[in-house]
Each structure stands twice: as C-alpha cells, then as structure tokens.
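STRUCTURE:
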C-alpha cells in the first residue's frame, strides 16, 4: 500500500503481522519494528523473507525510502539524510505508531543515526546493523584488499571516490561477492530489488563524502544495538566500534559476528536473529 506522510508524499509500506494478538482472555500489544533498507537506491525487498522470523515477537513495518522502490518519485532536492530521517517520524504519525523499534541496515543505518540525532526521544529502541558513521576510506580499502586482493581494492577506491555509472557497474560486478562470507541462501533476492541508480550515485558522490554522524549519537535516549560482521568490507568492524563508543554508555550495546560480512542475518541467521530477539524482548 502507499501511505501519504504529508505534503502529498506517498511511501510504499508493507505490514507483516498484527499489532494486537490474542493472549488468554485479553489482547496483547506487540512492539512495532520498522525496517530501514540499505542502498541508497535499493528497496525493502532485501529484508524478505528473513525477517519473518521476528513476526511472532513484533509487528514488522517494511517501507521504501522516499524516492526509492515503489514509493513515489521525488525531486533530487529531497534526497537527503535529514529528509529520510524525518520521514520515519512522518510515517509513524501517519500510521499511529508510538515508540517504535527502528532497525537501519547499511544505508538505512545512516538514516537511523540521523534519526537518533534529530528525534532522540522518538524510538523505544534502535538497531544499527552493518552500517558506518562516516566515510573512512582506508578501512574499506584495507578490507576489500584483504578479501579480494588488489583488484577489489582498486574497484572500491574508484567507485567510492568517483561514483559514475561505469565505476558502479565495475564495482558491483567485481566486489558484490565480497560483501558476504557465504553463498546467498536466496539466489533470486538480487533480481527482486528495484534499483534507483540515480539516487545511489547522487548520494555517494555528494552527502556521503563528508558524512559524519558520530556526534549525533550522543543524543540517544534509548537502548541502541550495534551489530557488525567482522568480515564486512563496506562497513568495517572499526566503524561499529566507533558508533558504540559515541553512544551514551548506558544505552550502547555492540555485538560482532566472527566470519560474517554485510548483514549478519545473511551469513549467520541463527546467531543474528537470536541477538535481535533478545534485544527486542529486553
């Protein structure tokens, strides 16, 4: 379905599971988990069907960021972290969601970090999964070289410093296989993704180059779980450690996964979802 979040902006939203469920003689309210997808330029499909494993614990809201996927196209001026972060609040207002659990994966984690800074009292919990607070190129390049040799390093350096259709195509063809340490459990998943390459190149060549989200994390007012794969080339473990250290100590939890790449649930779903379930139930 498409939901108007104000100003004529419509986001594509999909809901998995009810909010209120029978529990003996009463109805019990489950928390609402809002999933912010990666990219930029991708859509929410990467969460499916894996995140159905959490549907017994939470009502799950999947949506495509403004301008992405099945959401309405929007002008380039709106392709900013501030706008995407504020959209989390706009969407919750439109749907009547109070105190959600917000999970940001990769680029969605950039959005979630800006959401923490701009709306620190809005969420009940936040999960930052396989994401980064800034563009520390040396860390990325060292990991790509470790996993794929000099050629992977060269492809990564070219794309992340000079994003063009050609450098993106070469990078994705040569480096995508290095993102994860296991073969895809769902080999058709990539074919289902709706890619907006114009948004991807606009953000990577623009706002991402000078992005620094660390200072905003100090404003967190709820528990924040940082999840990281120790073999993630694009959002290295050191980035996760920086985020965990920047959060208020009483709210910060860091969990790293050995032998795991980008998106822990892709390489070690049992371990990743066990951590997520514990955090949601806490």
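SEQUENCE:
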């Amino acid at each position: 379905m498409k939901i108007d979040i104000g100003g004529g902006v419509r986001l594509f939203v999909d809901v998995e599971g009810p909010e209120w469920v029978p529990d003996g003689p009463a109805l019990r309210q489950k928390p609402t988990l809002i999933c912010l997808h990666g990219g930029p330029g991708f859509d929410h499909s990467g969460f499916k069907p894996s995140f159905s494993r959490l549907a017994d614990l939470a009502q799950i809201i999947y949506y495509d960021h403004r301008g992405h996927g099945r959401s309405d196209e929007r002008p380039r001026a709106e392709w900013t972290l501030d706008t995407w972060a504020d959209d989390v609040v706009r969407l919750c207002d439109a749907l009547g969601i109070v105190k959600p659990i917000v999970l940001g994966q990769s680029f969605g984690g950039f959005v979630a970090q800006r959401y923490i800074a701009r709306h620190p009292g809005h969420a009940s919990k936040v999960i930052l999964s396989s994401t980064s607070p800034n563009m520390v190129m040396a860390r990325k390049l060292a990991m790509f070289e470790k996993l794929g040799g000099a050629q992977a390093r060269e492809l990564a350096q070219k794309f992340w410093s000079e994003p063009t259709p050609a450098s993106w195509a070469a990078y994705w063809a040569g480096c995508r296989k290095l993102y994860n340490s296991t073969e895809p459990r769902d080999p058709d998943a990539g074919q289902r993704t709706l890619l907006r390459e114009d948004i991807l190149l606009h953000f990577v060549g623009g706002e991402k180059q000078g992005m620094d989200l660390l200072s905003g994390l100090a404003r967190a007012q709820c528990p924040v779980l940082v999840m990281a794969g120790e073999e993630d080339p694009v959002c290295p473990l050191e980035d996760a450690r920086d985020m965990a250290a920047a959060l208020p100590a009483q709210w910060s939890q860091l969990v790293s996964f050995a032998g795991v790449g980008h998106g822990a649930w892709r390489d070690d779903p049992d371990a990743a979802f066990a951590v997520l379930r514990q955090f949601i139930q806490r």
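REMARK: The two ends are 31 Å apart (CA to CA).
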